[in-house]
Amino acid sequence: MSNSSTLLPAGLMAAYAVTLLLFARRQREQIGMGKRRWLMLTLLLALLNAAVYLLPDDAHMQADTKDFFISELTQPALGVILASLVFVAFTYHTLRYLQYRSAPLWTAAALIWWGAQAAITITTKDLSIGQDGWLGTIYDPVVWPGIIAIAGWAVIGALLLIAAFYAFFKAHLPEVANQALFYAIIVPLVLLGGVLGTSGSTGMREIGWVAEFFGLLGAVYSMIAYRVFDIRRTLRQTLATGILTLFTALIIFWVLLTGREMDTDGDTLYLMLGLFALAVALIYIPLRTVAQNIVNRLFGGPTEGVSQLLRQFSEEISGVVELDALADVTQRTLHQVLRARRAGLILVSNGADGTLHLEPVRRGLGDVPEHGVIFHDGPIYERLLKARAPLLQYDLDFGRTYASIKPEQRQFFEQMRMSAYAPVVVQNELIGIVCCGSKTSDDPFTNSDLELLMTVANQTGVALRNARLVADLRRREMDQAELNRRLSNTSDQLAQLDGVKTDFITIASHELRTPLAQIRGYTDIMEAMNEQGLLEQDQIESMTGNLRKAADRLENLIGAMLDVSQLNVNAMDLRFAQTSIENVMRMAIEPLTESVKNRKLMLSARGLRNLPPIQADMQRLVQAFRNVVLNAIKYTPDGGRIDISGYMKDNEIIVEVRDSGIGIDRAHQQLIFEKFFRVQDPSLHSTGTTKFMGAGPGLGLTIAKGVVEGHGGRIWVESEGQDPQRMPGSTFFIALPLTPPAEAKRVLPFEQGSKQMENFMRSQNPDAPQGEPEATLLKPPPGMRG
Predict the structure, then answer these.
(1) Residue 692: which region, alpha, beta or left (left: phi > 0; alpha: psi -120 to 50)?
(2) pLDDT at site 642
(3) Distance of alpha carbon 638 from alpha carbon 643, whole angstroms
(4) How much is the pLDDT for 614?
(5) How far lies 20's CA from each of 12, 53, 98, 254, in Å?
(6) Parallel, antiparallel, or unpaired for β 714-718 and 641-649?
């Protein structure tokens, strides 16, 4: 190998070594360790690749194969293998730099390819790869090591270019898009340099070595620099300068050509040229201004009339008192001044525990978060208020200063999809943030752009404070109006409930007098007949049976009132045990079977058998279900239908009781669960446990609601309305959790409670048979629907 052929590889080795040394000495906190290591590995492999070309082409024949080469491996073939390994390391570094999570997977595939290439190259005799002209001779005859190498290079090149351009197009921030575009330039430089460097052709390989070095040097620069230089702006400025230069050159050339063709002598020639130059200058200045404006408009030059736009903005916001109007004016101004695609306004208010609440003015912003938070002791607050400086989203994402901010803060700003933020400070208080999205030219924000953004934010301060004061006043007015409306509704409900109390006196007097009248009547009859000696055994049994029914009815009414009083003070004790909805419903409707037959009603139940067991107070739940079914029976005409069904939804058991009755007015669908509430006129009260439209004291649904809510469940009704002619019907829904909540009121377990109740009843009634405790569950009172 000639001295000229060894000089360049030696120089590149020194250059790689210096680059490695300087790169390794950079502070580690400035560069991610994963990206740092793989780029250093890439540089080291490139250094070794350059060292290979310092060896003679026949080194495998001059040295012991065990020391330097394996089998017939030549120096050019070894260069191809090392170049491929450089590509593998560079692939992982590039994908990591572009923030692809699939980087390890692609790198593993590339390593498999490199291993296969190296193995086939080592085991192949008479290698021609890496030698002069090998790239054009690997197909005839087929040289598999060369085919595999070129195929892998093509795949790696296509993959990295697609990854770079995809990252460029999907990047939200212009700085990130610029980094991706920078690598779209670096990738072909490194890959093409590596391919040319292994071509074996003198001149081409030297160009390839240099190109690869500068490509890797660009990668080092991108890692060291916080932001790479703006490629798009540089290209536009270069093109614009070229166009203006060409335009100027054409005018000068035309002037010179015209002067040369003038046929005059001496002083006259100079005078004519001077006059002609003055005329051309007068024409050239406006033409160049027009050309400059055209270039600026096409390639994103500075906006004209910024001062006028800012003055107009100041005049517009001086009379604005609406937040939406202020947001519109601010957005429009930022669109014009900075050519931003989107802009907005964020309201800042003091919260608890050292936080500031962020609330975007959503007008014109589309899908943005409803609120966010920042902390008084955080770097964002330090930047916006204490430093009173703008904040870039790029700094939030990649700046070491903001690496410690909490995820909820970072997520809010990411969802805003803005590029720059400027604080709105009034009297040393942060009251808002003006935010600006990416520019239409996709250029990063310059210092002059940020100064304009700060100017807009400063002018917004007083107007924003006034608009917020007006908004707060209007919000308080709306709250006051809503409070007045609620007070009015409450007053109406209190008036209704006051009427309910009066109605209760009428209803209760009727309900209590009926059984008392029966008891007094039968006792008077029995007393009179006993004095006359006319009582017979059959008559005594009949009268005592009627007396027992009246006493039971009176007991049921008193029991219902006691249950309601327990609900009022949250004193209803529940004993939970495992049971099934099917058993509960069967026990609830069993005493009502005779009434259903007499009324010729069709009652069906389905879907209850497959429901999972629940923890519940079975006696109380039977009472609640019976009251709901009894309510359906009373308000369904003879021959009607009642359907009971059950199913699971969202870890709850839903039981539906649907009837074909008169329905419920929408205005009363909440009030029917209030105690003693009735829609009918109490003076038209008609006692009847199961008769159609028969009324009761109005406690059944109240007790049902209390029992269901005591189990952690819910009860509600749906109906189109009340219509005794059309019969729209009603559907009661009961939702019960499988396990009652921890705050549900509990007493002793069901078994222990039953045992204690049995002992208590024995102490009160010593004559009761052993093993047969007196029933403790009161019969449910008649239900009441509005």
Answers:
(1) beta
(2) 94
(3) 15
(4) 93
(5) 12, 20, 22, 54
(6) unpaired
Phi, psi at 270, each rounded to 5°: -65, -40
| pLDDT beneath 50: ranges in the chain | 1, 28-33, 63-69, 569, 684-685, 747-786
Distance CA 135, CA 148 (A): 12
Using DSSP, state whether 199 is helix, strand or coil: coil
Q: How far apart (Å, rounded) are the C-alpha atoms in residues 124 and 72?
A: 8
For β-strands 641-649 and 602-606, DSSP reports them as parallel
Helix or strand run (H / E) with residue 356: strand 355-360
Question: What pLDDT shows up at residue 781?
Answer: 36
Determine the residue type at 360: P
Contact present, 106 and 156 (Cβ < 8 Å): no
Query: Reduced to 3 DSSP states, what percent helix, strand and coil does the chain have, rounded to the nearest 5?
Result: 60, 10, 30
**pTM for the whole thing?**
0.56
Residues 655/661/666/667 CA torsion (nearest 10 deg): -110
Question: Which residue type is seen at 153?
Answer: W
Angle between helices 266-299 and 231-261 (to 10 degrees): 160
Sheet arrangement for strand 391-392? 372-375, 355-360, 343-350, 429-436, 420-426, 391-392
DSSP state of 383: I
Tell me if 471 sits within 8 A of 431, measured CB to CB.
no
Burial degree of 273 (CB within 10 A; 0-12, 13-18, 19+)? middle
Q: Is 39 exposed, middle or buried (0-12, 13-18, 19+ CB in 10 A)?
A: buried
In angstroms, the Cα distances linking 137 to 58, 194, 295, 377, 575 are 21, 19, 49, 68, 91
CB contact set of 181 (below 8 Å; sequence gap of 6+): 164, 168, 231, 232
Q: pLDDT tens-digit profile of 120-153?
A: 888 877 667 778 878 777 777 778 888 888 999 9
Nearest Cα residue to 123 out of 60, 70, 59:
70
Backbone phi, psi, residue 420, to 5°: -145, 150
Q: What six digits make up the tokens of 28?
A: 């580690």
- Least Cα distance to 365 among 398, 395, 323, 406 occurs for 323
- Contacts by 579-582 with C-beta closer than 8 Å and gap 24+? 579/613, 579/614, 579/616, 579/618, 579/621, 580/608, 580/611, 580/613, 580/614, 581/608, 581/611, 581/614, 581/646, 581/653, 581/655, 581/736, 582/608, 582/609, 582/611
Residues 449, 451, 456, 460: is their CA dihedral positive or negative? positive
